[in-house]
């Protein structure tokens, strides 16, 4: 390597020895830092790129240009995968080379490094092309040979050329292929044929020519001169038979010509030597493999021309076959498989060039050993043949302990922790069927006793062979990622405060329960007045209360039942119902009693109660989980309306009311813009003169679906949200505008009374809304009286006094409405800037028939007059009530007896 930090990628062996090894493989290892685009390389890169004397910067620029396409591919691909790229490269001298680069990403695509190898494969590509051309020429030769050439394997014919078909008088080669040789060779010739074949024990050995009689398909028998050669056919031993019909009396020269042509056209080097090793024959394949012509080789010793010691006699004594490292004439290394056979005049050697396949094996081994993924190869019986370093590291053992072991003995278990039977393992299934098993998650026991989770892929190495198959197993350690995923899954499905199931998991359990064959009970629990605890004591105390509530609920449910927290102070229990409403009600009451026990937090004993809505879903309930939870929520809301601390079962009428409630609440937001709101006015008379002195503006809503909606229904809906502020401002502008027009049209000094809700007193824009409404209508401020209920004023008298004082400065009048229902005192009335007091209608009803009611009304009138307030009685419905109020000194009155609310254009 040329850089100091290269020791990280290419350490462990001596640098000069490592460079020498790579040079033998015509390959240059390199690395590339993605963070700073910084390459490093081994010696030999300059020679590979045709720039042996180039400066470092020039060589760096040419190298980056060379590997840039590979970098682009790997940046957009996952780490760990090996990528290859071949490209044409022109050297500075104009020579064109074919370079192959292969690399793998270590780390991420931003700060990681690429480890790679670049090889000059120009000669290999030309060698493969030459070998392919030679094989094609050999096939042409065999097919057009005048001699019969056929092959038999396992005593059956597997190939026959056209000359064989003609010689045996067959219709086609299909009639010959598959026939046992006993059908083709005459019986008296068969023993001799078998004996000669038995002597051919090594590939490349051949028999001497012998006369054999063959059976023709027309029944005749013909004599032929036959030569048998031991070969490999489809990877297995076979015999190639070359036969010449001697009845044709072809000259011996023709036979020799064809034999010489066969030798010249085979793909392996066929070399003949004398007994002392001098080369006497050198075919074309030998010239191509060793880079020496026949003229250059013949007459020299075999060891000199192949670049390595070679003694044919000694090789034959050692078995006749060996693998050796030879050298081409240009000095490049060759991996050669050598077979030797003896001839009367010496020896014949068959040298097969396996350089390309060996180099591919070395590249494969280098890449596999560099992988972070474990790779194991087994034979067809499941015995481990090889394992890369990553496999040993992941399994917490050594390669020596892995290699030779039986996969069936490995302790493996599934995601439930149960042992995986041998037949169910991915390796066994692939061995038995050849079918791949992809990304199977299995657990294994490491050598140190710890468990590890693996994502395993199993593939056959020999798909074309019969079972059982040898296999390659690749696996990745997903223990950490699995733990992270499980933690994220729990965080995604559980409430972080209580550890209970959250809404997502509650719906999942509820959906499963509803699809079972059993009734299900859903209890929706909402803590009453929990907001008071949070607001007064802080969220820390509130969180502790919620945690204790979750624990108590969990302790009370049975096995298989689910407790969840939906958020805030809302909890859910999914219980086995057994179609028994009574049991569900008892469970709800038990939950409430248990929650009512004091909760000790920071030295305080706190008590909580709950409102519980219940849904009983029979086994055939069509509702979804979300529907059932919604209906339980509806029932809970109904329980709160009953007075809190209650239990209520869901029924369809509840849902209809809630649906109407929701629809009205949504439509109310657009009611003003759609002109659905209008004002009705009820007259107020002076009891002394009988004249109408004022009207009370009452808001009305005509809904497009439900018709007239009572204010008692839609005003609370508006107060539940901020809609009341917009509606209140709209009502004030409309009433001011309509009354101003009425006063101008009738020339009357009529006053307008308008109600303010409790929520409007909290509106910071109330003062501006009143001012703008009066200004737009041109209505004098003194002709408008704003009425506020007694309960709203008493909720926060100090704040209410401030708001009313600001309104009083505009010049408007102020009234306390529904007096007698809010427990106000004389002192409070004195502090508020009021002009009018309205007696609640509950005191007026029956006042002329009940002496006690008369006494109360008389006292209220006296109280109001004592603080100089005008008194108005509302709800007058009879003449007797009106007469009594006049005698008691009441100032004004309104009610159905005096006049019903009506639109402005219908006021009398």
Layout: helices, strands, pairs:
Elements: H1 7-10, H2 15-24, E1 27-33, E2 38-41, H3 45-48, H4 56-75, E3 82-90, E4 96-106, E5 113-120, H5 122-144, E6 148-153, E7 156-160, H6 162-167, H7 181-184, H8 190-198, E8 210-215, E9 221-233, E10 236-245, H9 252-265, E11 269-273, E12 279-282, H10 284-290, H11 294-297, H12 302-306, H13 312-317, E13 321-327, E14 333-343, E15 346-353, H14 355-370, E16 374-378, E17 384-387, H15 389-395, H16 399-402, E18 412-413, H17 426-433, E19 437-445, E20 451-460, E21 471-477, H18 479-493, H19 503-514, E22 520-528, H20 530-537, H21 539-556, E23 562-567, E24 570-576, H22 581-596, E25 599-601, E26 604-606, E27 609-617, H23 625-641, E28 647-649, H24 652-671, E29 677-686, E30 692-703, E31 707-709, H25 711-719, H26 723-746, E32 751-756, H27 766-777, E33 784-789, H28 790-795, H29 797-808, E34 813-819, H30 826-831, E35 836-839, H31 841-844, H32 851-866, E36 870-874, H33 879-887, E37 892-894
Parallel strand pairs: 27-28, 30-32, 32-33, 33-34, 34-35, 35-36, 36-37
Antiparallel strand pairs: 1-2, 1-5, 3-4, 4-5, 6-7, 6-10, 8-9, 9-10, 11-12, 11-15, 13-14, 14-15, 16-17, 16-21, 18-19, 19-20, 20-21, 22-24, 22-27, 23-24, 25-26, 29-30, 29-37, 30-31
Protein name: PAS domain S-box-containing protein/diguanylate cyclase (GGDEF) domain-containing protein
Pfam families: EAL, GGDEF, PAS, PAS_9
GO biological process, one term: regulation of DNA-templated transcription
């Amino acid at each position: 390597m040329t850089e100091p930090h290269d020791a990280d990628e290419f350490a462990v062996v001596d640098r000069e020895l490592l460079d020498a090894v790579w040079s033998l493989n015509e390959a240059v290892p390199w690395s590339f830092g993605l963070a700073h685009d910084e390459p490093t390389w081994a010696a030999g890169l300059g020679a590979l790129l045709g720039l042996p004397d180039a400066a470092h910067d020039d060589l760096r620029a040419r190298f980056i240009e060379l590997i840039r396409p590979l970098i682009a591919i790997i940046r957009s691909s996952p780490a760990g995968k090996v990528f290859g790229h071949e490209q044409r490269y022109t050297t500075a001298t104009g020579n064109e080379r074919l370079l192959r680069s292969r690399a793998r990403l270590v780390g991420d695509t931003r700060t990681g490094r690429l480890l790679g190898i670049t090889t000059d494969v120009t000669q290999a590509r030309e060698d493969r092309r030459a070998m392919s051309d030679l094989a094609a020429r050999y096939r042409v030769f065999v097919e057009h040979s005048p001699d019969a050439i056929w092959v038999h394997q396992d005593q059956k014919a597997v190939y026959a050329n056209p000359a064989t078909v003609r010689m045996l008088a067959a219709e086609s080669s299909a009639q010959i292929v598959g026939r046992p040789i006993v059908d083709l060779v005459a019986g008296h010739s068969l023993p001799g044929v078998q004996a000669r074949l038995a002597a051919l024990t090594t590939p490349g050995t051949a028999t001497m020519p012998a006369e054999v009689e063959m059976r023709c398909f027309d029944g005749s028998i013909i004599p032929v001169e036959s030569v048998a050669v031991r070969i490999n056919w489809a990877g297995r031993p076979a015999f190639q038979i070359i036969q010449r019909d001697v009845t044709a009396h072809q000259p011996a020269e023709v036979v020799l010509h064809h034999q010489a042509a066969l030798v010249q056209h085979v793909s392996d080097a066929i070399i003949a030597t004398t007994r002392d090793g001098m080369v006497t024959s050198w075919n074309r394949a030998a010239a191509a493999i060793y880079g020496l012509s026949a003229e250059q080789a013949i007459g020299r010793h075999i060891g000199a021309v192949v670049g390595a010691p070679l003694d044919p006699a000694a090789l034959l004594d050692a078995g006749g076959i060996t693998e050796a490292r030879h050298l081409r004439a240009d000095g490049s290394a060759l991996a050669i498989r050598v077979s030797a056979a003896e001839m009367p005049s010496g020896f014949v050697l068959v040298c097969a060039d396996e350089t390309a396949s060996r180099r591919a094996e070395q590249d494969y081994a280098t890449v596999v050993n560099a992988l972070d993924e474990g790779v194991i190869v087994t034979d067809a019986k499941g015995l481990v043949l090889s394992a890369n370093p990553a496999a040993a590291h992941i399994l917490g053992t050594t390669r020596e302990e892995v290699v030779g072991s039986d996969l069936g003995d490995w302790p493996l278990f599934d995601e439930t922790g149960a042992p995986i039977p041998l037949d169910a393992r991915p390796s066994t299934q692939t061995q038995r069927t050849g079918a791949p098993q992809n990304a199977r998650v299995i657990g294994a026991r490491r050598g140190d006793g710890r468990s590890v989770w693996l994502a395993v892929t199993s593939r056959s190495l020999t798909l074309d062979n019969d079972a059982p198959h040898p296999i390659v197993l690749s696996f990745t350690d997903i223990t950490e990622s699995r733990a992270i995923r499980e933690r994220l899954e729990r965080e995604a499905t559980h409430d972080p405060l209580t550890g209970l199931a959250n809404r997502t998991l509650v719906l999942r359990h509820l959906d499963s329960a509803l699809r079972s064959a059993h009734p299900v009970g859903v209890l929706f629990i909402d803590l009453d007045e929990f907001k008071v605890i949070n607001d007064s004591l802080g969220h820390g105390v509130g969180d502790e209360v919620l945690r204790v509530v979750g624990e108590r609920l969990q302790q009370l449910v049975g096995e298989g039942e689910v407790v969840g927290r939906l958020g805030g102070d809302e909890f859910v229990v999914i219980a086995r119902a057994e179609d028994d409403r009574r049991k569900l009600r008892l469970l709800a009451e038990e939950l409430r009693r248990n929650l009512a026990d004091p909760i000790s937090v920071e030295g305080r004993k706190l008590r909580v109660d709950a409102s519980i809505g219940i849904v009983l879903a029979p086994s055939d309930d069509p509702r979804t989980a979300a529907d059932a939870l919604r209906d339980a929520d509806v029932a809970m809301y109904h329980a709160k309306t009953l007075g809190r601390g209650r239990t209520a079962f869901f029924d369809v009428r509840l849902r209809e009311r809630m649906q109407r409630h929701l629809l009205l609440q949504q439509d109310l937001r657009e009611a003003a813009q759609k002109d659905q709101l209008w004002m009705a006015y009820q007259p107020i008379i002076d009891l002394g003169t009988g004249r109408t002195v004022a009207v009370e503006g009452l808001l009305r809503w005509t809904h497009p679906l439900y018709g007239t909606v009572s204010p008692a229904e839609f005003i609370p809906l508006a107060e539940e949200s901020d809609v009341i502020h917009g509606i209140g401002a709209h009502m004030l502008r409309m009433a001011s505008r309509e009354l101003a027009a009425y006063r101008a049209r009738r020339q009357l000094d009529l006053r307008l009374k308008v109600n303010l809700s409790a929520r409007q007193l909290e509106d910071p824009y109330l003062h501006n809304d009143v001012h703008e409404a009066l200004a737009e209508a041109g209505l004098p401020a003194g002709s408008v009286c704003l009425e506020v209920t007694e309960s709203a004023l008493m909720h926060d008298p100090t704040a209410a006094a401030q708001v009313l004082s600001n309104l009083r400065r505009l010049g408007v009048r102020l009234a306390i409405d529904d007096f007698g229902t809010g427990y106000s005192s004389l002192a409070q009335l004195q502090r508020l800037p009021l002009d009018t007091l309205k007696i609640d209608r509950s005191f007026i009803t029956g006042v002329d028939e009940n002496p006690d009611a008369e006494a109360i009304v008389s006292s209220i009138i006296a109280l109001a007059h004592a603080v100089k307030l005008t008194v108005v009685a509302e709800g007058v419905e009879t003449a007797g009530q009106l007469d009594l109020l006049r005698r008691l000194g009441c100032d004004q009155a309104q009610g159905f007896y005096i006049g019903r609310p009506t639109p402005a254009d219908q006021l009398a």
